[in-house]
Amino acid sequence: MIKLALTDMDDTLIPVGAPRVSDRAIAAIHAMIDAGLHFGPVTGRVPTAMAWMFNGDDACCSTGAFCNGQMVYIDGELTHTEVLDHDSLQHVQDVLEDVEGAALAVYDVRGDGLATLVKRNVKSLEGHPGVMGEVKRGGVGHGTMPSLGDTPWIKSNVHVDGTRERLVRVRDMLREECPKLDFVLPSPTAMLIDITPHGWDKVAGVCELARELGVGMDEVATFGDSENDLSMIEAVPNSVAVANATPDVAAAARWHIGPSRDDSVAAALEQIAAAAPTGEMPAFMR
Q1: How far is CA 121 from each of CA 89, 100, 257, rounded to the nearest angstrom?
Q2: Right CATH number for 86-197 from 3.80.10, 3.40.50, 3.30.1240, 1.10.150?
Q3: Model's pTM, two decimal places?
Q4: What's the gap between Cα 259 and its chain centre?
Q5: CATH class held by domain 4-81+201-285
Q6: Do 131 and 102 touch, CB atoms closer than 8 A?
Q7: Tens digit of each residue's pLDDT (9 = 90 or more) over 32-82
């Protein structure tokens, strides 16, 4: 029986281009809750970015692992936080200073959750709209700042303009230059590299949630599609890949469902809720 369902958001629960979680998915989450089960997002996004994704329905996101598992919430209460090593994060900025069209970004996880680029050499970003969208007036983020300051940062990533191949090259360079941090791609489409403390990732957040809720790992279902989901897909016995998942995630998953665009995770959550009264596994896991 599945007692805890945890899902990635972008390209898993929410299809590319969709403004938010579907009404069907929200209804499926409430069916799980009504059946006495637990649901939560496991995402690279910050907690304050969740409510709008669920159309203001806080019950859908009061439990979950955010910032790639670095912030764990249960019923709206923060139960665990992992902070990034400040010196290592500073080294990331130094490595990226003269890299054209690439910049470190940090986030206010308890505020609006928007990005601020950390770059002294702002001229190296000119002509790179994929990154400059974060610093232009009216853009998504707060602009730039020249240093990290003394703030203990939790959420950080790297914004890269260019091709997917260039994104992978920057990721691999950072892995070699900054071994005290981990660097993963959060999506097959987004030009971002997520940064996490070395050895702490989504599966660590999943384990924290299961332990706090008293749920066995064989009673957990995890849904994912991308490189930053791979650890929890590999570690959880009842892991699930959507059809649009990367080859590595698809190969590691035990179970497979349709693509994100077909609301396949919502259908799976419906089946988990429907199976709860009899204590059986959901239909797609039989």
Answers
A1: 17, 9, 45
A2: 3.30.1240
A3: 0.93
A4: 18
A5: alpha beta
A6: yes
A7: 999 999 999 999 999 998 989 999 999 999 999 999 999 999 999 999 999
